[in-house]
Amino acid sequence: MAAFMELRGAGLIEKDTNGDVLWTWSYPSVSAQQRDYVQLKCGLSGEQPYPAGFIFCQWRQVWYYIFRADISSAGDVGPLSKVTEVALVLMSRDFNPEKYETLCQILLRQYRQTGSPTSILEGYLSVATRGTCANDENGKFSLGDYDRRQAYAKVCLKEIIQTFGVETILIYTAMMLKKRILIYCPHHSLSQLLQYTRSVPALAWHRQNWNIVYPYVHLDESETEDLTSASHYVAGVTEASAEGRTDLYDIFVNIPNSQISIAPHAKESFAMGKLHKDIAMAMEVAGKTKELLNNLKSLASTGDDGKPSLTLETLKARKMPPATENFLFSLAACEGFVQL
């Protein structure tokens, strides 16, 4: 039953033939701030065509899955003759874009047939209570078909490595040391931005933590405040001016230019040693990470709580290059091997 309770709500936004955008339905309730947030993300108010039919974003520890459909181009619009576009949003606590994209599609098909939000509510409650939503005509959905690890594994690491080459080591280092990563891609390539941001946490696969991902962030006060409340993250932006916001990142990843910039305050953390160069040349990330952590554990002693404990003095005794020593100690702290 706990798995069924990840859903937190649903909402429907419509654009009519007069160009007016209205929030027409929600369940159980949506705050004014949430409405403003979703309306900004769904893009129905914009004059330019939206580049992605489905997007996902995180704000205040809730995931928003938004599916946008063009009703006017569907031919027979049925009961929605006065509607040109519609956006359905599902709010949830868990990260699983493929799961919620499928559910959005099914619920929207039902809505386009009936023109009544009741059909959305019926499907939503069926998933929330039974974990399934079955309709022979509009498709079948079952929570049991979606494992979160499958969502974690849907990544484009090879593409990232091809884009940035050996500089990918900077992204890897930022992930391992729990730094703040800001990724930029122009708005017309929003789908690519979503794919890149969801892929980066796989560089630290052993943590299996996708709650650090903020795939699509606007640089307004409410969103930047939410971002800065986190100690580390992977955030995606479509505003080029974000590169000047060094208060928001330790490294800035520019996808179209294939460049990675380090914020001045973070230069020391990204000093490269032979260890980094070895990993950069190999880029066999999962294997190298496992080897790296095993080596750290071998240097550590066992603390009173039975967990590995490593001191800076232990590393200094190994007479490593300063950059390597600094990286390994910072990594040990991030992994909980250092007693603070």
TrEMBL record:
<dbReference type="Pfam" id="PF08616">
    <property type="entry name" value="SPA"/>
</dbReference>
<dbReference type="InterPro" id="IPR042431">
    <property type="entry name" value="FAM45"/>
</dbReference>
<protein>
    <recommendedName>
        <fullName>UDENN domain-containing protein</fullName>
    </recommendedName>
</protein>
<feature type="domain" description="UDENN">
    <location>
        <begin position="1"/>
        <end position="340"/>
    </location>
</feature>
<keyword id="KW-0967">Endosome</keyword>
<comment type="similarity">
    <text>Belongs to the DENND10 family.</text>
</comment>
<dbReference type="GO" id="GO:0005085">
    <property type="term" value="F:guanyl-nucleotide exchange factor activity"/>
</dbReference>
<dbReference type="GO" id="GO:0005770">
    <property type="term" value="C:late endosome"/>
</dbReference>
<dbReference type="InterPro" id="IPR037516">
    <property type="entry name" value="Tripartite_DENN"/>
</dbReference>
<keyword id="KW-0344">Guanine-nucleotide releasing factor</keyword>
